[in-house]
Known about the structure:
By secondary structure, chain A is an alpha/beta fold. A six-stranded parallel sheet of chain A has the order 1-2-3-4-5-6. The first copy, chain A, has helices at about 5-15, 35-50, 75-85, 100-115, 130-145, 160-175, 185-195, 220-230, and strands at about 25, 55-60, 90-95, 115-125, 150-155, 180-185. In chain A, helix 3 (about 75-85) links the parallel strand 2 (about 55-60) and strand 3 (about 90-95). Helices cover about 45% and strands about 15% of the residues of chain A. At the A-B interface, helix 6, helix 7 and helix 8 of A face helix 6, helix 7 and helix 8 of B.
Amino acid sequence: VIGASREAVLAELQAVLAKGPDAVEWRADFFDGIADTGKVLALAREIGELAADATLIFTIRSNREGGQPIVLSDRQAVELTAEICRQGIFPYVDCELSNAPADIDFLRGVAHDCGTRIIASFHDFQRTPEAFFLLDKLRQAERLGLDVAKVAVMPHSLQDVLTLLQVTLDARESMQIPLITMSMGNYGAVSRLVGGVFGSALSFAIGQNGSAPGQVPIDDLRCALDILARAGQGGAAR
Amino acid sequence: VIGASREAVLAELQAVLAKGPDAVEWRADFFDGIADTGKVLALAREIGELAADATLIFTIRSNREGGQPIVLSDRQAVELTAEICRQGIFPYVDCELSNAPADIDFLRGVAHDCGTRIIASFHDFQRTPEAFFLLDKLRQAERLGLDVAKVAVMPHSLQDVLTLLQVTLDARESMQIPLITMSMGNYGAVSRLVGGVFGSALSFAIGQNGSAPGQVPIDDLRCALDILARAGQGGAAR
Lengths: 238, 238
């Protein structure tokens, strides 16, 4: 959900919920009230009331990792995310691994006191780093005591897509926390459909508006997951 | 199509054709008239009349590579396949790379005189050999002047599935002839759906009866290919 105004967010949320997603991510960096904590918390409450049946994820994606430019500093974004944790409506919040270690520690403390889980994320919209680097990013999330490890990278070839799937499988076999991985763009779309087979726990699809390149419509994703499940490969439904 | 009697073959063919396949493989090793060349050619003619809109593939799978036990020797199977070429109804015939070099040379000569293309195949129903071995099998088909290279192997892990996809991509980037690759069984089913993205030109699906483990129903395969095509990854339709 990437609406700019309260009205746009709520309208988009209703359209998305009509498609029955398992989870909904609110990308609050798109929200024009992001600098007003009271407005963000009020809208979060309205989102929680509408989306009672979907698992909610709160995300402020930084501009350097592909998000919208916002007036908040990294620290302010982390503090706003901590307020969301204290509110207790969103069971998952996103925290970029590129945040300052002290900010990550702070958010982990607040989140875990509140029973909120942190998705520790890394994005590269330019390229696909080497496998050892990506694997280390995922493991870093676990080392830091965070709850879910996410890596999203841009491929320039089908080889990059296979590298991402290989990293996913290697991480799945050597880590305990859930993983979310994807190869973005046109080359990577296949990874959004079959990443679950190789160990990714969640795939982001287009409800009404996409938030990253290569996302497929939720109906197509669900159809692909159903086909895989019938073929005995229901990994994405873990 | 794996019927044992003429009637079973024709009934199965009609059921399969109703599902609109691009290609139909007749697995003649299942046919109880396999030892009677006249019966095989007569049935081939009937198949050709029924299946005018689908690309036909004639295959006698040997028992050692997962086919039915038959009374024909390898040489006799190759001679029967050559008769099919001369008949001019099946544009593709299968020839296992495990055949004697002289038999492969013989069949290539006949097939190419008749304008028939040879799918040079390798199967391992027990395991997934190492990548360099599989890549060499595919390249062997090209070295021998055959027209399509096929490898079908059994995985014991998701790593084996990724190995097969990696081999497919490596072969696609280094070879000229079309490839058909698949990882079989439950683990491998995903490769039957997305192998086309990485360079496989054909995927075998279940029309009425499956002929190898892990095949998915043709409707599921078509749905998955449509989703991939909409996402810009219509590789399988090459």
